[in-house]
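Recall the central idea of this unit: under ordinary conditions, the amino acid sequence of a chain determines the structure it adopts. In this exercise we apply that idea directly, starting from the sequence alone.
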Amino acid sequence: MKLRCIAVDDESLGRKMLEENIRQIPFLELVKTCRNAFEAMEALQAEPIDLMFLDIQMPGLLGTKFLASLPKKPLAIFVTAYSHYAVESYDLDVVDYLMKPVSLERFTRAAYKALEAFRHRQEAPAPPAETEPGHFFVNVEYALVKIPIQDITHIESMKDYVKIFLAGQPKPVLTRSTLKAIEEKLPARAFMRVHKSYIVNLDKIESIRSHQINIGRHEIPVSEGNMDELLARLNYER
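Accordingly, the structure predicted from this sequence is:
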C-alpha cells in the first residue's frame, strides 16, 4: 500500500526538506510539490491524493483556511514553524502537527500515523447519500471559488481546463482541472457524462433533438453510445 501525497510549502527549503523525507518512507509516493494553497487545489483536482504535508503560514491563503475549505479532505499533516495554530488544527482533524525543523525520526512517526488513519478510513463504511456536500471549491485565478452543485447546468472540458456553467450566471467558471476530477465531486444520480467532453445536470435538460441536448442557449452533443442510457435515466422509452 502506498499513500499518494503532495508537499505544500511556500519556501523552497521547506519543499526540499519535505521531498527528501517523503522519499525516505517506502509507503509514501510524492505526486507533486506545491508553492501555495492554489497549486495544491489544482493538484487535488487533477488526480486522487491521499495525504497532504501542508505548511500553514503561506501568502494568499493560510494552510488552515485552505484545509477547512475542502468539502472532501485528504489526510493532512501540518508542517510549520509556528505553534499557535495547534489548537485550530485539532478542529480540522489533522493526523499530526510537526514543528520545523523536523527530524526524520519524527517525520517517520507522523507518516505511520497517516498510514494507520488511511487504513481506518478505507475500512470505514461509506457515508449515506444524504451526507453528500452541496458544493465544492475550485481554483480560479488564485482564488477559491465556491460552486453550488445544484446550480450547475453542464460542464465542458477544454484540454487542461474545464468550464463550469451555472444557472443565472452569464459566464462559466474556468478552472484548471480535468473532467474526471470534477465528475468525482458530483452526485452520480443527478449528473451524467454524455460525451467525452461534456457532463450535464439531468434536471436542467430542456430538450433533446438529433443527439443534441439543449439547456438554455447552449447546445451539448450526446455520443451515440450514451443516448440509450441518457433516455433511460430520463425515464423515456423509444
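The longest helix spans residues 104-123.
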